[in-house]
Amino acid sequence: MNACAWLIVAFLALCGAGAVLAAVLPSRRVGGLLAWAGTLASAVLIAASGWALLGGSSFTLPLWTLPSLGTLQLRMDRMTALFGVITGLVFLPVSISCAGQLTRALGKYSLRPFGAMYLALYASVVVILTAGDVLMFLLAWEVMSILTYRLVNYDHDKPAHSRAAYIMLAFSEAGTLAAMIGLLLLAVSAGSLDFASLKSAATGLPAGMKWAIFLLTFFGFGVKAGLVPVNSWLPRAYTASPSPFLPVLAGALLNLGFYGIMRVDIDLVPLAFSSQGVVVLAIGTVTALLGILYATTANDLKTMLAHSSVENAGIITAALGAGFVFTAQHMPVLGALAFVAGGYHMVNHSIYKSLLLLGAGVVEDRTGTRDLDKLGGLIRTMPWTALMFLVGALSIAALPPFNGFVSEWLTLQAVLRSVELSSVGVKIAFAVCGAGLALTAALAVTCFVKAFAMGFLGMSRSDQARKSSEASTSALAPMALLAVLCLVFGVLPTYVIPTLGRAVAPAVSSTAFQDAIVPPFFVGTAGHKQLPPPFAAEFHDLGAQTGQDIMPGRGLVVMHRGGEANPVVFAMSTSYMLVVLVLLLAATYVVVRLVVARRRSVTRSACWDGGVRKLLPEMTYTASGFSNPVRVIFDAIFHPTTVQNTPKTVAAHFRTAIDRHRREVHIVDRLFLRPVWAAASGLARLLARMHNGRMNAYLAYVLSILLVMLVAWALTAGW
Amino acid sequence: MTHWVSKGLKTGIRTTPYPARPETAAGISPGRPLGGEYPEHEIGSLVARCPVGAIQQTGPSAVAVDYRRCVHCYRCQRGLASPLGWEDGYEWAGDPAKMPQDRLGGAFKRSVNILVVDTGDCGACLNEVKQLNNPYYNMHRLGFFITPTPRLADVLLVVGPLTDHMRLALKKTYDAMATPKRVIAVGTCALSGGVFVPSFACGRALAELLPIDVAVPGNPPPPLAILHGLLVATGRESAVSLESPAAEVGKQEVALK
Amino acid sequence: MATSQAAILQEDLLRLSGSLTGHRYLFGLLQVGGLMRDLDEAECQSAAASARRTLGQLEELERMLRLTSTFLDRLEEVGITSHDGALAHGLVGPVARAAGIARDLREAQPYCGYEKFDFDVPTENEGDGYARLRVLFAEARQAVRLMEQAAGNVPAGPVAATAQLRAGAALGWTESPRGAAVHWLRIGEDSKVQRYRIMPPSFMNWHGFHMAAEDFAFQDFPIILATFDLSAAENDR
Question: What does the alpha-carbon distance between residue C32 and residue C161 come to, in Å, rounded to a whole number?
Fold first, then answer.
């Protein structure tokens, strides 16, 4: 048992001890306990996973052997390590913020169950990630589902919350069922339950079985990942969840769906058909588009961030889909590129979504409202929170030098590489999905400009916003940590990409892609297949080798060059971008202050407001107004069921007010959930006719079934 | 679409030759009274007849007209046995602050952004300002452009008596303009309040609030007079006196009472 | 393009007013009891002839605008005031006449000798911006018709009567270009004005403006406002 295994065991022990402590400590101490226990446990987890990810150490730890079910075991490989690092990075700041936020958000309930369940959930997540066989996986998955339901429903006084949590539980169970059937199908073919034997059995499966396993597990785990058409639960559950828990839901638990998808489709039963990859790509694009549309038109901060999570999940899925297609078409380099893009986006999403949700939690805590139409001007009352939220918004809008830019860029470049594919149909699919992803990126900018501007800038639209105050240090410190991570992951992609590459290497069964995406510092003399000497010399002249003597690692440029038949190049370097950005800003400052300002005088006067006597908040742009063009253009998707404008009049002519009522049903509910529900209800109603309460009818049923069985037995046994 | 082009070509060029050559068409200016000699026994009734007190007796048989007050009511012309002299011109812009000719600087000589602010006028002055860019006057050819924002304006053109409601807005507008900036007061109401003073709703003159660089009297000053005022502001034309007969060189113009 | 042509016509009419009366905006023409200066028949006829020429150009402009679809797109079915809404809000002037309320004070309650003249009250029924434009063009034609009838029938005699100010109250009304303007006046024992009350046409039309602006795009708002031709100063009464 190596050190990595010991660390995981230590982690589990810590969580267990913490959960027990939480059950006995007084309620007001639970927040502090969570902060300490969560931080310690996360540190241990990050250490273990980091060791495995960077160092390559792995382990298999058998726990108990059950008769006829095999051995329950824990296993760590690079893919698990990646998810472990992400989970640790999310739980660490969220646990710290629990110290202050928990009592304020959920003070009216006893916090002891919360503390115990939180740490138990943490443990179950890590067990899911390190599970080495199907039984362990499913047990931990179920525990995780139930604990999530309890935690989301913690603020159960409001019936809407309970309803949302129940819908989440129902979807979660349906998804678990589908995934379980898929995994068991595979287990039946393998004859055993542990992942190693499943993997070896998967090579001999017929195509139909592969499709069945793929579809069942994709949509089963897709419930957790928030993919269309099974994501109706996500916005509801996110809005109902208590604010301290929400970053865990979005940053760590969403990724479990992707873990399931990646484990099955990359590790156990690698996808062999490009059509499967196209299905994944298409679903990802549609998810992303629908997610961002609903996010742009949402006025509630939490709902907007929920739909935005759906959008990001869609982008990750699209990247994975592109990877599957490239791998099926035997292009390992491009496949690795796409998988790295998907993994990078997952890391980034966890970081910036947690940051944004912590910020939203602080805003709700200090102002008491989440409605963007009632906020505004918060940058004056809570400047640090505003700065953190801005970093998160810039990251999620994919603007350099933050991390969202890198993963979005890599995803779009991977999809653009479809020029190198051979099949025309697949190329068309890629083109359409690429356009959809570009539209999503544009709408994401709109959405977060609206969120930041309406929430933090301008005038305060309500007294609650005007009277807010800055958050406490225990709330600001985790946000600052996440903001720094956003910048680091954005400026140093050349260190992250090789690490991610090693995590996805088993998927493409090739290691040749390392040089192909992050070439070493352009020393120029060696050259190799991807970078012949004249090419490298050009980049050398552009300064691509700056820093080679002081920086460890490969290089500072992310670049791909197609083969000799198609030598198209794409390249970027956010490290250089940041340096140039800082230099330009500094130069502008110097020029203005020292050169220009000497010759001119500067007068300060108030902002030009059109000469009005007093600017009122009613005169400013509202969030609904800002997103109205999107609502109008995509009206066919939103398709409101009721739009009523009832004027209130005096003497039947002089209008004093207008009452506007608008009811919308989410398109996924309209097109998928409601028809399915209607069909199921219809079927149930039909079957209910059997229960007519008459004894004679029931006896007739028994008799007829007996007859049918006798006839069937006779037919099969006789001949 | 082509019928518009042919219509435009048929209409030809209507633009006035001013400032290169004087404009001679009919109806371009209301004209204004001339001060000077006047029969002694009728001076009293003449001075009393002017509703705004623009005519003052300067000597036993001489009167002076203060153009900052004249509202073109024609009562010194019509219904009198001896009407006052009349001049039919349009170059009326005066220079109350006695600034040097090249006041805005060379860069603005042929390109000026003007912000028009209406502080409560009757509509006549504003309409004359609107006529400034019709094909007859076409101020664009002289380099004058209207801008809606004070941040980009070089010249503030104010019409109307300074109503109390617009005081704050006007002050804010002036403060929001970047230097160098100049103020042109157009119309008698801006210079002295016109027919509206004394009143509970407006001040006496724009000079109470802002420093005036060019004053264009008239009620309303015809577009050519406003053009003359803009040309004076950019140093391309010389200012004329705001009184008749013109005040002697070196002597300060009679202050408004 | 059309704006410049219309601006030319506006300047032509201002110059006509200036050369006929001395002032472009007809200041200094009226006094209590009548006019301050006399006009002879030749002047009146030449003014009417000039107006007829300008009208010819205006009608050509109208013909060309009717054929310009980009122009009509902004006006047709935009900014609609219904007949009932116009009645309820008491709209006046061309705005009301475009909504089917055929009321013109010169015809309904003639003053200043309008009963002797022969003219129509142009009315449209759609109530949209194009209807208002058609009403305005038609009124220009009626105005020139009135000018020609008046120019040919100027009676001889003084142009002003000596006014005797008596104590009491009086009501006067005119049909101004924007609509019905009503003035009420009370003069006290000392022959000074005690109370003065004005009901300007824009004051009435402002209250009905929201009816026309609702349900239309943000970009249509300035066009609808322009077709209503409202004066803010008329609210300051």
Answer: 8
- Burial call A249-285: b when 16+ CB within 10 Å, e when fewer: bbbbbbbbbbbbbbbbbbbbbbbbebbbbbbbbbbbb
DSSP string, A136-179: HHHHHHHHHHHHHHHHHTSSTTSHHHHHHHHHHHHHHHHHHHHH
Check C210 against A655: CB less than 8 A apart. yes
Distance in angstroms (rounded) separating the CA atoms of residues A152 and A621: 34
Give the nearest chain B residue to A611 (CA atoms).
B169
Give the three-state DSSP class for B184.
strand
**How distant is the alpha carbon of residue A714 from its chain centre?**
56
Cα separation, A145 vs A688, whole angstroms: 31
Domain that residue A711 falls in: 691-719
Q: Which of chain C's residues have a Cβ under 8 Å away from the Cβ of B14?
A: 8
Domain of residue B133 covers 106-242
Mutation target to probe the A interface, by most A beta carbons within 10 A, among B151, B172, B173 is B172
Q: Are A287 and A258 in contact (CB under 8 A)?
A: no
CATH superfamily of C68-235: Cytochrome-c3 Hydrogenase, chain B (1.10.645.10)
Query: Complex ipTM, two decimals?
Result: 0.90
User: Which residues in chain A are closer than 8 Å to B178, comparing Cβ atoms?
Assistant: 603
Give me the tens of pLDDT residue by residue for chain B, a chain 257 residues long.
788 999 999 999 999 998 899 988 988 999 999 988 888 888 888 999 999 999 999 888 899 999 999 999 999 988 888 888 898 889 999 888 776 555 677 888 899 999 999 998 888 999 999 999 999 999 999 999 999 999 999 999 999 999 998 999 999 999 999 888 899 999 999 999 888 888 888 887 888 899 999 999 999 999 999 999 999 999 888 889 888 887 655 444 554 54
- This prediction has a pTM of 0.81
CA distance B162 to chain A (A): 15
- Domain limits, chain C: 68-235
Structural tokens at position B68: 């900052």
Q: Are B175 and B209 in contact (CB under 8 A)?
A: no
How many CB atoms within 10 Å of residue C104? 25
What single-letter amino acid sits at A701?
Y
Same domain, A162 and A68: yes
Q: CB distance C88–A655 less than 8 Å?
A: no
State whether the Cα torsion B241-B245-B249-B254 is positive or negative: negative
